[in-house]
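Side project, low priority. Logging it here so it doesn't get lost.
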Amino acid sequence: MMLSNSFGLQANAKNYISINSLDDLSKIENLYDKKLFILGSGTNVILDNYFDGTVIKVQLTDIQNHEDYISVGGGVDWAQLIEYCLVNGLYGIENLTHIPGSVGAAPVQNIGAYGVEISSFIKNIECFNLKTKKLETLNNDQCKFGYRNSIFKSKDFIILKVNFVFEKSFQPNLSYPSLSEFLKDKSIDTSSLTPRMLSELIKHIRNSKLPDPEIEPNVGSIFKNPIVSVTDFDKDFLVGHKWDQGDGYTKLSSARLIELIESDLIIPDTLRFYENHSLVLINNGGASFNEVINLLNQIKSRILKEFNIKLEIEPEIISV
């Protein structure tokens, strides 16, 4: 079974299970394969050419509106949820517009953009526990959400449905510096912003920085932005490319760190960094899993040596 992925790597799996209804979970209950991989839309993974195990894909695509929350199937496309919220007067995630992927994948990474994280709107998550082989509902605090992190990275759960609580009145979050600067540069009156306008502005900003994976295969940010103690570095280090996190910590720009060491890297012709954003690696065509991993390891090693900073790869690496 060929596995679709936004990085355009050729990948196959030994077995494949599609969850189209809860009845399909019986296929997993009787499964003895110890190698399992839960695949969303394939927008945040780097796949080896062959996975010697079972790939599970959730294709539950219903959206149900309850009195104080909405229940969304894990197979719903993220763009579809954004549109549903805009049409139905549910607010808060406009800043997360144009993030590729599925609803089921969103909590795993606790996706965030322009000052908003999805965990702020999650009531609970209905999932299948692969250890107990039982259905469970995890409340928000049980999900252990953090920066690009959650309990779901343990791979012990299959996310089936995500239950959200959204705002009923629109209060735009314009706190993120690059967003507020964009609005100022374009002389946009923030008091006149509508949810649809803000969503379209975010889409415009993202398109100006990030390439469409359907045209130029990529997985978005290839590394996380490291969070470090302010006392570990000179106050002038990476000025203009870091963000105060409070409590004595600051977040550094991985893109800027890569720019500082890029000339020392050996980059194969099959790969390149996006011209408008140094944190986006693009498959020019024909890139192999090994080429990608070798380049990422080069970057990690060089930045550790030059700046004593450990970078963490953001997409999930799936190897044999």
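Brief comment: The CA atoms of residues 99 and 226 lie 21 Å apart.
Revisit when time allows.
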